[in-house]
């Protein structure tokens, strides 16, 4: 596995001289007069970075090996002349029609055997040697042609891998899957053991007998499904790394990235991250959702955690409405600015959009643009220009990092395994469960990292495991050592149930963490849809009587003490619903149901207090977010008002208002509804 190269990322920061700002630029959709206006408007708006040629394969290679770069030569020259850097695509995100016509074997196949046709995008099998070969050839041609161009600043490989075709079930993929399994297990007996194939007479005598988990009469083998998800993510990653390696050979100093989609389950960002110079994210929170900013915050923390804390790029967001939901809400005045600064507050070094100019035709013509159909004299474009002006006022944010004391443990293996079929309840969904824990932490004002269980845990005081169903013995031992050394732990139901092969840890749940938590679970009692169960306090110091939903467990204490009991008519009053246990020098809490939000907040507050974790800025009004980005000799405090009310915030020390350089150091900030403040330290 390649290690990330921070020097290449620094090359881009040095080139931009601060934060990046821009969007997807699709000049091939427009005439020369419109393109000339675009460059003028970009300079007025402070655009310094554009994603270019993402879907240009058919234009640049209209026939096999017949490359024509003339159009984009002019575009790149124009960008350079206007001081704009290109995040130049390898153009391989969507194969051209001629390639599918000549090689229909590149087309992906569904689990039921259907072939997906061209006409949309991403119509390729990730394991196809033909697709991989043609994509690498194009990447090499693009890199060789533009290697010395002054506009080139970063390479953009593919686009949102796996959002349309995450898995292919064709014979080519089957052969690739068998190779992957051979590398993973070495011999067929090891695979049979890992997959528990003696169940339902599935025992294999050779790898050649194994196929992808295609449509079957009933549930496919869960371990097979889990490995196929791992394989499918790795197959897509190979597509990326083949192109990346070609780019590195030709342009060794230019950083390489691809853009992930927030909340996308199919691609294991944590496994991809070490292969990339910069991580990039596309984020589309729904303005119709009151708590959309919290879901977005989680996505940013997941990406930053995968990047080991390094800054990242917000490569796409919507200036206003998107086009692909059932109901597509626009962003009310100020919300685009607020959500853009939120990404910066949580580690982004660039704010970009899809797209620069709203398309006239095609499937995304009603997706908003930085320049709307109505033109530049519009509210949306005025807000875009103002944001570009503001971002240019805070170059000291670029390259800075967050330092947090709370980490949510999260990984894709658990996400995939938790949501497989034939489980006690399909109501236990991974991101929902993470948000049940993330939301009260966010509302408590603490900084949060989201990390893989193999990550360095030493910077943290509190770990959170939200229904971490799949937990290897190795990772459980690391968590146990963290608690024994004085760390805090908050774990919730259905945690530590299976190993990395989806085989149950024997001896009572959650066996690998039973000693840490001081308990044993004998039986699951999932709730019916909409059902609630009463909870009562164990003593006067415990949270007030409340309700739980979704799940119940029969918890037997083995050293832990109860904080809440189940109190429903169908349950005895001595069944614990929430517990606390001392393990070594640390404290471990367990929650055996899904408490109502107020009760969950109370449990989280107790865990934070035990661990000695405080808010980034104590005393903030509800709905105001604070983050602190640290540089070598300075820090920047960002305040974000996610409410529709004005709020006053007092600061413990004077800070410089980076968005209003005329003001002296301030100790008091007034945040307008949806308002933002960016405050530098005295050394800024």
Describe the structure.
This protein is an alpha/beta fold. It has 3 domains: 394 residues, Alpha-Beta Barrel (TIM Barrel), CATH 3.20.20; 206 residues, 3-Layer(aba) Sandwich (Rossmann fold), CATH 3.40.50; 57 residues, Immunoglobulin-like (Sandwich), CATH 2.60.40. The protein is built from 18 helices and 27 strands. The strands form 4 sheets. A 10-stranded mixed sheet has the order 12-11-13-14-21-20-19-16-17-22, with helices on both faces. Strands 5-4-3-2-1-9-8-7-6 form a 9-stranded parallel sheet, with helices on both faces. Strands 10-23-24-27-25-26 form a 6-stranded antiparallel sheet, with helices on one face. Helix 6 runs parallel beside helix 9, helix 7 crosses helix 9 and helix 15 packs across helix 18. The mean pLDDT is 95.
CATH hierarchy class name of the largest domain: Alpha Beta
Show unreliable segments: none
What gyration radius follows from the Cα positions, in whole Å? 26 Å
Shape: globular
Name of the CATH superfamily of the largest domain: Glycosidases
């Amino acid at each position: 596995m390649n290690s990330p190269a921070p020097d290449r990322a620094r090359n881009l920061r040095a080139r931009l001289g601060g934060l990046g700002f821009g969007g997807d630029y699709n000049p091939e959709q427009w005439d020369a007069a419109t393109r000339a206006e675009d460059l003028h408007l970009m300079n007025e708006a402070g655009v310094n970075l554009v994603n270019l040629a993402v879907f240009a394969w058919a234009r640049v290679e209209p026939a096999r090996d017949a490359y024509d770069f003339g159009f984009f030569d002019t575009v790149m020259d124009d960008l350079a002349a206007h001081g704009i850097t290109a995040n130049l695509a390898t153009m391989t995100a969507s194969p051209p029609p001629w390639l599918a016509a000549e090689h229909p074997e590149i087309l992906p196949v569904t689990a039921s055997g259907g072939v997906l046709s061209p006409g949309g995008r991403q119509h390729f099998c990730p394991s196809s040697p033909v697709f991989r070969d043609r994509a690498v050839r194009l990447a090499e041609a693009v890199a060789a042609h533009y290697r010395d161009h002054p506009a080139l600043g970063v390479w953009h490989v593919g686009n949102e891998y796996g959002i349309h075709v995450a898995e292919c079930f064709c014979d080519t993929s089957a052969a690739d899957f068998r190779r992957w399994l051979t590398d993973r297990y070495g011999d067929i007996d090891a695979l049979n053991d890992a997959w528990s194939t003696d169940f339902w007479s599935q025992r294999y005598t050779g790898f050649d007998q194994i196929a992808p988990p295609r449509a079957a009469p009933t549930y496919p083998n869960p371990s097979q499904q889990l490995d196929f998800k791992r394989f499918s993510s790795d197959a897509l990653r190979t597509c990326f790394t083949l192109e990346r390696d070609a780019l590195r050979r030709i342009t060794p100093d230019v950083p390489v990235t691809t853009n992930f989609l927030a909340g996308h389950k199919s691609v294991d960002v944590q496994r991809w991250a070490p292969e990339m110079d910069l991580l990039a994210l596309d984020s589309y929170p729904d303005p119709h959702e009151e708590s959309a900013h919290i879901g977005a915050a989680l996505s940013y923390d997941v990406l930053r955690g995968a990047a080991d804390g390094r800054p990242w790029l917000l490569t796409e967001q919507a200036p206003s409405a998107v086009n692909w939901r059932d109901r597509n809400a626009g962003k009310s005045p100020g919300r685009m600015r607020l959500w853009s600064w939120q990404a910066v507050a949580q580690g982004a070094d660039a704010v970009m959009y899809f797209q620069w100019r709203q398309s006239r035709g095609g499937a995304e013509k009603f997706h908003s643009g930085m320049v709307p159909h109505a033109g530049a004299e519009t509210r949306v474009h005025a807000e875009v220009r103002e944001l570009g002006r503001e971002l240019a006022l805070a170059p000291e944010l670029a390259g800075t990092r967050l330092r947090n004391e709370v980490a949510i443990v999260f990984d894709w293996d658990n996400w995939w395994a938790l949501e497989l079929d034939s489980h006690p309840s399909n109501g236990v969904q991974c991101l929902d469960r993470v948000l049940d824990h993330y939301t009260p932490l966010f509302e408590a004002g603490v900084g949060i990292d989201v990390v893989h269980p193999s990550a360095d845990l030493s910077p943290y005081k509190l770990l959170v495991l939200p229904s971490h169903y799949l937990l290897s013995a190795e990772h459980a031992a690391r968590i146990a050592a963290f608690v024994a050394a004085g760390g805090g732990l908050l774990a919730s139901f259905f945690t530590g149930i299976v190993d990395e092969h989806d085989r149950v840890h024997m001896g009572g749940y959650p066996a690998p963490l039973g000693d840490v938590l001081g308990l044993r679970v004998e039986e699951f009692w999932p709730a019916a849809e909409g059902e609630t169960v009463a909870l009562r306090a164990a003593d006067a110091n415990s949270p007030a009587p409340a309700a739980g939903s979704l799940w119940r467990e029969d918890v037997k204490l083995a050293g832990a003490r109860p904080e809440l009991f189940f109190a429903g008519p169908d349950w005895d009053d001595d069944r614990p619903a929430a517990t606390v246990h001392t393990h070594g020098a640390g404290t471990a809490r367990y929650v055996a149901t899904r408490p109502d939000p107020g009760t969950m907040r109370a449990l989280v507050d107790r865990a934070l207090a035990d661990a000695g974790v405080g808010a980034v800025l104590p005393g903030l009004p509800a709905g105001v977010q604070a983050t602190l980005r640290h540089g070598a000799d300075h820090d920047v405090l960002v305040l974000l008002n996610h409410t529709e009310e004005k709020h006053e915030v007092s600061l413990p020390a004077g800070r410089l208002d980076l968005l209003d350089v005329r003001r002296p150091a301030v100790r008091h900030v007034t945040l307008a509804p949806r308002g933002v403040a960016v405050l530098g330290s005295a050394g800024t």
